Amino acid sequence: MTYHYTLNRRWSDRFLPDIKRLIGAHLLNVAPDPLDRLHATDLLMLDARDMRIAARVRRPGYALRYPHQFTIRSHVPSGAETELSKIVNGYGDWMFYGHVSASQTHIEHWRLIDLRAFRAALIRHANGGQQLVMGDQANPDGTWFKWFDIRSFPAEPPLVVAGSAF
User: Fold this and answer.
1) Phi/psi at 42 (nearest 5 deg)?
2) Which residues have a Cβ under 8 Å from the Cβ of 143 and sit 6 or more positions away?
3) 38-67: b (≥16 Cβ within 10 Å) or e
4) Residue 156's closest CA among 133, 134, 124?
5) Do residues 71 and 137 make contact, with C-beta atoms less than 8 angstroms apart?
6) 135 - beta bridge partners?
7) Which end of the chain has the least Cβ crowding within 10 Å, N or C?
8) What number is the average pLDDT over the span 101-129?
9) Residues near 2 by beta carbon (within 8 Å), at least 6 away in sequence
10) CA atoms of 146 and 72, how far apart (whole Å)
11) What is the dihedral of CA 38, 40, 45, 49, to 10 degrees?
């Protein structure tokens, strides 16, 4: 079986409206009174710069089997750069990690992961700091991913920005 980027992308893109709705509440803050009164501003963006958000959507069944894990693709048969490589190289601010419902109609469980905290934890782990629980897993389509146990990450800086109940 071969890796089919286009098919996987088309499947996961169906959930982008759900992802935008879930993340939006975490990107906006209520404006302080002076801005509201003087500048017609009710809401402000969380950050004054672009927020680059990766989105990973898992098929049904994985949330219950692996409730404390998130995965990032680490190898594709073509040798193309993977999500893990891009993230480790500093790309992306947050990662939306969602699990679709059994009916595949909506996102049922999700987390918003701070990739800056993720990178910081990887650096500390590599330098003998807090040990992270992680592993590698092959898929039948020739791709590989690295899984990470959220519970093994340090409390500061917080890895999870927001999420649903699992």
Assistant:
1) -100, -30
2) 3, 73, 75, 76, 77
3) eeeeeeeeeeeeeeebbbbbbeeeebeeee
4) 124
5) yes
6) 147
7) N
8) 95
9) 77, 141, 142
10) 5
11) -70
pLDDT digits (tens, 9 = 90+) for 82-111: 999 999 999 999 999 999 999 999 999 999
Predicted local confidence at residue 44, as pLDDT: 78
159: exposed, middle or buried (C-beta count within 10 Å: 0-12, 13-18, 19+)?
Answer: buried
- Does the structure show a pLDDT above 60 at 1? no
The DSSP string of 69-81 is EEEEEEE-TT-PP
**What is the β-pairing status of strands 28-30 and 43-45?**
antiparallel
**Which pair of structure tokens corresponds to residue 123?**
């650096």
Map residue 131 onto helix, strand or coil: coil
Q: Which of 130, 129, 135 is nearest to 152 (CA)?
A: 130
Distance CA 72, CA 85 (A): 9
pLDDT one-digit tens code per residue, 33-84: 998 888 888 887 766 567 889 999 999 999 999 999 999 999 999 999 999 9
The mean pLDDT value for 6-28 works out to: 88
Q: Which band of pLDDT confidence, cut at 50, 70 and 90, is reported for residue 2?
A: low
Please list the alpha-helical segments (H only) found in the chain: 5-13, 16-27, 33-39, 62-65, 83-88, 115-126
